[in-house]
Amino acid sequence: MKRIVAYYISAHGFGHMTRSFEIIRNFSGFETHIVSGHSPETAEFLGFGGIKAASYRTCIIDSGVAQKNALEIDIGKTLDENADFIEKYSDLVEREAEFLSEKKVSAVFSDVSPLPVTTARRLNIPVWVVGNFTWDWIMEGFENYDTRFEKLNYFFKNQYILADGAYLLPFSGGFEMFGKIYKTGLVCRKPSFSSEREARAVLGLNEGQKAVVFTFGGFDAIKSLDFFRKTFRFLYQALKTGEFLKMFILYPRREFLFPIFFFQLTALLQSRATE
């Protein structure tokens, strides 16, 4: 009997999709239906053509964090978009319930939207979350800016808790609510270059020449140059004085967990870069 699976992928950035595609690529004997907020063109760019999937469908499945660019978080817009998402949540669950029933899905995976968790539980379909964070955990730090995030985060947490379990990737946080947790290693797609030499040739880098990746997108390079100069001057000074470590004192339970640290560090860098 063919096993029919629905795999939901967040459209916040490309990372959720690239790692999900690698997981799906290794599914054996599954009829997999992929659902994501990314367009079919983006999915194709990220490697959809290299996996065996029964269908690809684009629709809203989460709201995530709104960003002004690659480094700046728009707190107000994030609040509005998530409040709007929750207001429409019941209708979205109805939509997905119809889809899962139509496809006769027998298992659901989500990276990392709570919507398919709620829907699958309603239909008594086994459902697992795959990822290294949950949206309530990411936005927990935003409660310091606006207490209305507390209600949003409480709602999302109570959807995630309905999952049968979670596949936990490294550098994670926010998975305490899951009853069963399966720890995994890092998941990423295979490099398209066969060697470092080939990568250097394509990128125009000489042998031994060093390069720093500031961001994977969302920034105008010329306009951002002055911002980066000021940012890295401050970062160097912070590392020397120990101010950098204050980030971990603010969130001692999370230690070096990446997402909340990234957003908090970004806020600090931006404030110092404009001084």
What does this structure look like?
- With 275 residues, the chain is of the alpha/beta class.
- The chain is built from eleven helices and seven strands.
- It has helices at 15-25, 40-45, 75-87, 89-103, 115-122, 135-140, 149-160, 196-203, 221-241, 246-250, 258-273, and strands spanning 3-9, 30-36, 55-58, 107-111, 127-133, 165-173, 181-183.
- The protein has a seven-stranded parallel β-sheet with strand order 3-2-1-4-5-6-7.
- Helix 4 (89-103) packs across helix 5 and helix 9 (221-241) packs across helix 11.
- It is globular and about 55 Å long.
- Residues 244-275 have low confidence and may be disordered.
Topology of this structure?
Elements: E1 3-9, H1 15-25, E2 30-36, H2 40-45, E3 55-58, H3 75-87, H4 89-103, E4 107-111, H5 115-122, E5 127-133, H6 135-140, H7 149-160, E6 165-173, E7 181-183, H8 196-203, H9 221-241, H10 246-250, H11 258-273
Parallel strand pairs: 1-2, 1-4, 2-3, 4-5, 5-6, 6-7
